[in-house]
Design goal:
With 219 residues, the protein is an alpha/beta fold. The protein has one domain (5-218): Vaccinia Virus protein VP39 (Rossmann fold). 29% of the residues lie in helices and 24% in strands. The strands form 2 sheets. Strands 5-4-3-6-7-8-9 form a 7-stranded mixed beta sheet, covered by helices on one side. The protein has a two-stranded antiparallel ribbon with strand order 1-2. Strand 6 (148-151), helix 6 (160-164) and strand 7 (171-177) form a beta-alpha-beta unit. Helix 1 (5-17) packs antiparallel against helix 2. The chain is globular, with a radius of gyration of 16 Å. It starts with a helix and ends with a helix. The structure holds S-adenosyl-L-homocysteine. S-adenosyl-L-homocysteine binds next to strand 2, helix 4 and strand 4.
Length: 219
């Protein structure tokens, strides 16, 4: 029997997002629309909309739907922004952002993941997403500044190049903490400095790069 994915998406929105307090109408609408099952491994098709992260190969994961929604809501997008994502992974978060912002720039350090995501997002018809293979902790100077930056891997601290690449009023959403657990953190840049808000505890794979964890740290 073929699963009714649109029904599963509506159920995910009701039971995982609305039930936990996600309110932004735009965010809820795109979660009813973007086909998460396209972004998971074939063997996981029937659990694509379940309430947990899933492996996507290369020891990486597509985040739990609620975490993707929460981070998206934290960015407070209006539709006009250029957004930078660090950690393309499957491309699911990039697709969600592309529905809510003007342009999405996404950086992934593992070439095979970047390649898969690029192909998939093109097949799904997204034309406002640019992906490159690089260490994203340095940001993407060519297209900076970005009104919103989202990091989908856990960092020991704010990577300074990312703070430099947001304008006044811009936001950086990033899990900050130790190797195994972090705090989802939103930094907003103001004239007088950074306003920092802790959102909740979270668990992400490590952000590996010049301005984050080094491979020797994570062993
Ligand atoms: N946003 C993804 C989930 C990403 S998992 C999705 O929607 O599926 C975290 C990703 O960050 C992994 O693919 C990992 O390879 C990548 N990553 C870790 N450190 C990185 C870095 N310095 N630059 C770019 N990508 C990085």
């Amino acid at each position: 029997m073929k699963a009714n994915f649109s029904e599963l998406r509506n159920k995910m929105v009701e039971e995982q997002l609305i039930a936990r307090g996600i309110k932004d109408p735009g965010t809820l609408e795109v979660f009813r629309k973007v086909p998460r099952h396209e972004f998971v491994q074939k063997k996981d098709l029937d659990i694509a909309y379940n309430d947990f992260p899933l492996a996507i190969g290369a020891a990486q994961t597509i985040s739990q739907p609620y975490m993707v929604a929460l981070m998206t809501e934290c960015l407070g997008l209006s539709g006009k922004e250029k957004v930078l994502e660090i950690g393309t992974g499957s491309g699911y978060q990039a697709a969600i952002l592309a529905e809510l912002a003007k342009e999405v720039y996404s950086i992934e350090r593992i070439p095979a993941l970047a390649e898969n995501a690029k192909k998939l997002l093109a097949r799904l018809g997204y034309q406002n997403i640019k992906i490159k293979v690089e260490d994203g902790t340095a940001g993407w100077t060519e297209y900076a500044p970005f009104e919103a930056i989202i990091v989908t891997a856990g960092a020991p601290d704010f990577p300074s190049p990312l703070l430099q690449q947001i304008p006044l009023g811009g936001k950086l959403v990033i899990p900050i903490g130790g190797r195994f657990t972090q705090t989802l953190t939103v930094a907003t840049k103001h004239k007088n400095g950074l306003e920092i808000k802790d959102i909740c505890g979270c668990v992400f794979v490590p952000l590996l790069g010049k301005h984050a964890w080094r491979e020797k740290d994570v062993g």
